[in-house]
């Protein structure tokens, strides 16, 4: 029998904290008030909510929480998380931009990196034009909650025709000794004909209590821009992550996003990519590894609004123990989006009879001249391949590891940054030990 949590009490606590924290929050008062009103109407989603039917968000928010965003992490603890040695590094600790721990000095011309607070204070026209314009507070309660209660985050802007050779690494760190909810937010704008590689990593460090991170990133990809975006999620046993990424693409842009979920007690990914002009290319790749009682919930939306665009989506999962994974991928092809090519695939390996995979690829097509496909497969490791390897002297455990590595490599090999690919491969190897 399922535990029943009083979601009204949770909602009321969050609203009470919002009223007590108004002086310390970020953004215009009207924007925040409207967002909290939207959250109040929607409430914490239950399993009666179609988009959250496989996950207990109320259990994640059960108990007493502290809403402070104190800095607890030393530079010595942060340093190992800077796994890209040649990168511009942004450190967001407990939802707040930490300039002293970041590497954002002596930036090249055309690259701006600062806190959201500083971007607002400077009256940046780019910030004012794009902030909170794409993630709609009416579509999801966690978008509304983040918009209402965020205190800070990163603002990244790449100017027109600028190519940033070095990766930009945004490190989200959660550190707490008491149950905490934080709401980090990022705005990333890549102007016309610019290029950038952006990595977001999510880490829980030295935590002795539950940390719930409700993170939101808006990405604007202007015409002819090329962007590679990576998310590395390693929140450990005490980390709970709701990660929303909202992307808007313009004419002839190319955007690739890669999500690697390596750990975390509960991880919910909401990814929406809007193709809002012609001749756009989008790539969505994901890999999730679940074990124990871990829960990973991936929801993606690819919204084709205009003709002559291409999208490709590949998500793979390896599920063991009593863990649960979900993939729900939607592709919309609007009436005007003729000549669309859209492909989606979800593949899973289930290593345990106690594990669960819920997979639901979806197509909604309102145009008649398109090429679209979707598919899903779930199975065990191939016994014939295991037998083949064992017949050649490979032990059973190593044979299984080799097959899992081979299965994951199709997604891992899409990483274009060598140091990042090696880091992810090392993390995956430790997972399979």
From TrEMBL:
It comes from Polaribacter filamentus. This is Fe-S cluster assembly protein SufD. Residues 177-407 form the SUF system FeS cluster assembly SufBD core domain. PANTHER family: PROTEIN ABCI7, CHLOROPLASTIC (PTHR43575:SF1). GO terms for biological process: iron-sulfur cluster assembly. It holds the Pfam family SufBD_N. Residues 30-170 form the SUF system FeS cluster assembly SufBD N-terminal domain. Belongs to the iron-sulfur cluster assembly SufBD family. InterPro entries: Fe-S_cluster_assembly_SufBD (IPR055346), SUF_FeS_clus_asmbl_SufBD_core (IPR000825), SUF_FeS_clus_asmbl_SufBD_sf (IPR037284), SUF_FeS_clus_asmbl_SufD (IPR011542), SufBD_N (IPR045595).
């Amino acid at each position: 029998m399922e535990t029943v949590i009083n979601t009204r009490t949770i909602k009321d606590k969050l609203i009470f904290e919002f009223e007590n924290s108004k002086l310390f929050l970020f953004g215009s008062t009207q924007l925040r008030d409207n967002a909290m009103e939207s959250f109040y109407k929607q409430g914490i989603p239950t399993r009666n909510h179609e988009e959250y039917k496989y996950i207990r968000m109320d259990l994640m928010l059960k108990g007493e929480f502290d809403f402070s965003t104190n800095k607890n992490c030393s530079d010595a603890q942060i340093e190992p998380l800077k796994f890209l040695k040649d990168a511009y590094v942004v450190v967001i600790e407990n939802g707040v931009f930490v300039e002293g721990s970041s590497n954002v000095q002596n930036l090249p011309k055309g690259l701006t990196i600062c806190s959201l607070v500083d971007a607002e204070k400077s009256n940046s026209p780019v910030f004012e034009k794009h902030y909170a314009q794409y993630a709609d507070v009416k579509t999801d309660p966690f978008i509304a909650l983040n918009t209402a209660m965020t205190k800070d985050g990163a603002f990244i802007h790449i100017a027109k025709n600028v190519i940033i050779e070095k990766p930009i690494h945004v490190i989200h760190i959660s550190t707490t000794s008491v149950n905490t909810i934080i709401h980090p937010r990022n705005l990333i704008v890549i102007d016309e004909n610019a290029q950038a590689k952006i990595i977001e990593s999510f880490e829980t460090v030295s935590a002795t209590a539950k940390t719930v991170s409700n993170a939101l990133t808006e990405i604007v990809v202007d015409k002819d821009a090329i962007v590679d975006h990576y998310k590395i999620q390693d929140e450990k046993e005490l980390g709970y992550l709701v990660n929303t990424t909202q992307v808007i693409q313009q004419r002839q842009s190319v955007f690739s996003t890669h999500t690697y979920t390596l750990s975390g007690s509960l991880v919910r990914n909401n990814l929406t990519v809007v193709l809002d002009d012609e001749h756009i290319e989008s790539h969505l790749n994901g890999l999730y590894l679940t074990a124990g009682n871990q829960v990973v919930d991936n929801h993606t939306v690819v919204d084709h609004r205009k003709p002559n665009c291409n999208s490709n989506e590949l998500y793979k999962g390896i599920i063991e123990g009593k863990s649960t994974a979900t993939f729900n991928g939607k592709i919309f092809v609007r009436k005007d989006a003729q000549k669309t090519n859209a492909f989606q695939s979800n593949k899973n390996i289930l290593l345990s009879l106690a594990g669960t995979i819920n997979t639901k690829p979806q197509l909604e097509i309102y145009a008649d001249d398109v090429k679209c496909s979707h598919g899903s497969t779930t199975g065990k490791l191939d016994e014939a391949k295991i037998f083949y390897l064992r017949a050649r002297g490979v032990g059973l455990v190593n044979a299984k590891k080799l097959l899992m590595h081979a299965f994951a490599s199709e997604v891992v090999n899409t990483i274009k940054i060598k140091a990042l690919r090696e880091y992810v491969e090392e993390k995956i190897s430790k997972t399979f030990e």
